């Protein structure tokens, strides 16, 4: 090889490594779900989003990725090998612009799984290069690897899937054995949203339960929680169960069988993955198959339809709610108080914790009753109910600005509640909404973010849009007065420099930085 060829080879190798690290981090952040890297490549480079079931141009600006793709095509047509090498090196090192190698919100962790995935991806890349060498065009093989790295990473994740499944089964069997030894009563909680809050409410009401931490709600997280946290003498174990598709909850329940199942809501969260609300509902319904008692949120129209069929099958059903009738447990917010109604005329009135959803609290109380706890014991702990981190938490900053932190997640229902909380915050001055919008809503995503922008405008709230994932929809709904920033820290800086005593701000959702 000539000196120029060596330099070119080194440049292409460095660009390929940069692409590998970039997309491996995305795959890790998406829990190694195959095709995650390709999906996020589309997020960063395509100008289409779903609107009312159809595709609508998002009016995103032309990016460096687009420019370099055009340059690649031109240089290929011109049969200019040096040009192809230069363009591909630039793309590999810099693109997509904004998707960093290290990351601000979550760095790549070189775990065993990450290293294995990187190794398999690297092996496939070497095969591509070897074929190109045999064809006397080594540089073309490197170019193909650089531009197709997301696909190679996804292919590695799919190839390793069966191996990782077998490894996970070791921890699952250990968890199954641990459950059999301790024999706690098991409560499983699922729902499109509200499951983590309901889990924490129930754990507080019981006082003697062990719950899965944070959002440990898949097979790896649930088995880890059992193996590490389930101590001898544990009376109740509360398992949060999430799903990205049919069969996952059924699998969790096969080795962590619930006595009591709680379903908090059916909504369009993960609609992008599931395809339809009917599929989401069917996937959530799997949690009821082994439970002797099922608690449902009666305010959810789809869940109300479960009551009669479940009861007819011999399953005990308890309904928790706020506005629906009839309910076994009802929690309403009246003049800043929780008015709680239970079976047999049980009642309680305590000061409400701002931001906590009454339906989640009602479902938690109903689950406590399903575990044969006394109504008086459960309601006696309502007054000390703690807030749930990053879920509509209200605080007053040292500047006097009211800050509502609802950054953990966002869905259409919670976004409306959070905006209403901002409107009712008592702020005498300016009110601002800082948000990147809502994601994973599939074909509904554009319309729901459009509605969020319109709602903010209707309430007279200033809108600061973070990033560009949902910028077009939010601005279209709100109007051109919306402010736009690239990162959340820039929005925080604006809030600190602009808002004053008597103003209020709502931080709604906070996307990790592998979203554009």
Number of domains: 3
The strand line-up of the biggest sheet is 4-5-3-6-7-8-9-10-11
Quickly give the structural class.
alpha/beta
How many whole angstroms does the radius of gyration measure?
A: 26 Å
CATH topology of the largest domain: UDP-N-acetylmuramoyl-L-alanine:D-glutamate ligase
Number of strands: 17
CATH architectural group of the largest domain: 3-Layer(aba) Sandwich
* Coarse morphology: globular
Euclidean distance between termini CA atoms: 40 Å
Q: Under the CATH scheme, which class of the largest domain?
A: Alpha Beta
Q: Determine the fraction of residues in helical runs and give it as a percent range.
A: 40-55%
What percentage of amino acids are in beta strands?
15-25%
Q: How many helices?
A: 19
Strand count, sense and barrel status of the largest sheet are:
9 strands, mixed
CATH homologous superfamily title of the largest domain: Mur-like, catalytic domain
Overall mean confidence score, pLDDT: 90
Describe it.
The structure is a single chain. The chain has helices spanning 3-29, 36-45, 64-77, 81-94, 112-134, 138-147, 149-182, 195-206, 219-229, 248-255, 271-274, 277-285, 301-312, 358-370, 375-379, 412-423, 445-458, 471-478, 488-498; strands spanning 48-51, 54-57, 185-190, 209-211, 236-240, 260-263, 293-297, 316-321, 329-334, 337-341, 347-351, 393-396, 402-406, 431-435, 462-466, 483-485, 504-508. 49% of the residues lie in helices and 16% in strands. With 516 residues, it is of the alpha/beta class. The strands form three sheets. The protein has a nine-stranded mixed beta sheet, sandwiched between helices. Strands 12-13-17-14-15-16 form a six-stranded mixed beta sheet, with helices on both faces. Strands 1-2 form a two-stranded antiparallel sheet. The chain is built from 19 helices and 17 strands. It folds into three domains: 3-162, no CATH class; 183-384, Mur-like, catalytic domain (UDP-N-acetylmuramoyl-L-alanine:D-glutamate ligase); 393-508, Protein-Tyrosine Phosphatase, Chain A. The two termini are 40 Å apart. The chain is globular.
């Amino acid at each position: 090889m000539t000196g120029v060829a060596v330099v070119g080879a080194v440049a292409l190798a460095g660009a390929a490594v940069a692409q590998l690290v970039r997309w491996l981090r995305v795959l890790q952040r998406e829990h190694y779900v195959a095709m995650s890297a390709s999906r996020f490549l589309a997020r960063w480079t395509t100008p289409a989003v779903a609107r009312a079931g159809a595709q609508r141009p998002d009016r995103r600006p032309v990016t460096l990725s687009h420019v370099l793709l055009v340059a690649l095509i031109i240089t290929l047509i011109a049969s200019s090998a040096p040009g192809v090498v230069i363009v591909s090196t630039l793309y590999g090192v810099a693109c997509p612009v904004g998707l960093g190698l290290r990351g601000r919100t979550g760095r790549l962790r070189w775990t065993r799984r990450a290293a294995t995935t990187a190794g398999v991806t690297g092996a496939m890349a070497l095969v591509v290069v070897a074929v190109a060498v045999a064809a006397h065009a080594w540089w073309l093989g490197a170019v193909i690897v650089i531009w197709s790295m997301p696909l190679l990473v996804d292919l590695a994740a799919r190839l390793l899937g069966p191996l990782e499944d077998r490894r996970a089964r070791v921890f699952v069997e250990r968890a199954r054995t641990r459950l059999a030894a301790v024999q706690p009563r098991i409560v499983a909680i699922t729902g499109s949203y509200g499951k983590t809050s309901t889990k924490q409410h129930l754990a507080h009401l019981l006082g003697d339960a062990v719950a899965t931490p944070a959002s440990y709600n898949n097979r790896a997280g649930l088995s880890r929680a059992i193996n590490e946290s389930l101590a001898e003498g544990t009376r109740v174990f509360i398992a949060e169960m999430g799903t990205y598709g049919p069969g996952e909850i059924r699998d969790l329940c096969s080795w962590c069988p619930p006595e009591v199942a709680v379903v908090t809501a059916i909504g369009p969260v993960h609609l992008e993955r599931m395809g339809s609300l009917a599929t989401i509902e069917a996937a959530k319904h799997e949690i009821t198959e082994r439970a002797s008692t099922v608690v449902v949120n009666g305010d959810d129209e789809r869940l109300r339809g479960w009551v009669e069929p479940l009861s007819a099958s011999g399953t005990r059903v308890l309904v928790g709610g706020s506005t629906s009738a009839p309910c076994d447990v009802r929690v309403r917010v009246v003049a800043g108080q929780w008015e709680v109604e239970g079976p047999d005329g049980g009642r309680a009135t305590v000061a409400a914790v701002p931001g906590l959803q009454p339906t989640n609290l009602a479902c938690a109380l109903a689950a406590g009753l399903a575990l044969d706890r006394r109504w008086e014991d459960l309601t006696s702990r309502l007054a000390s109910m703690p807030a749930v981190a990053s879920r509509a938490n209200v605080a007053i900053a040292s500047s006097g600005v009211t800050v509502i932190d609802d950054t953990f997640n966002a869905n259409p229902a919670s976004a409306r509640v959070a905006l209403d909380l901002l409107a009712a915050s008592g702020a005498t001055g300016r009110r601002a909404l800082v948000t990147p919008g809502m994601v994973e809503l599939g074909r509904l995503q554009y319309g729901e973010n459009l509605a969020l922008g319109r709602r903010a405008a209707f309430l007279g709230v200033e809108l600061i849009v973070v990033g560009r994932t949902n910028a077009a929809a939010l601005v279209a709904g709100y109007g051109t007065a919306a402010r736009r920033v690239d990162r959340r820290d820039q929005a925080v800086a604006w809030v600190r420099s602009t808002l004053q005593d008597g103003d209020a701000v709502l931080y709604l959702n906070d996307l990790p930085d592998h979203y554009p």
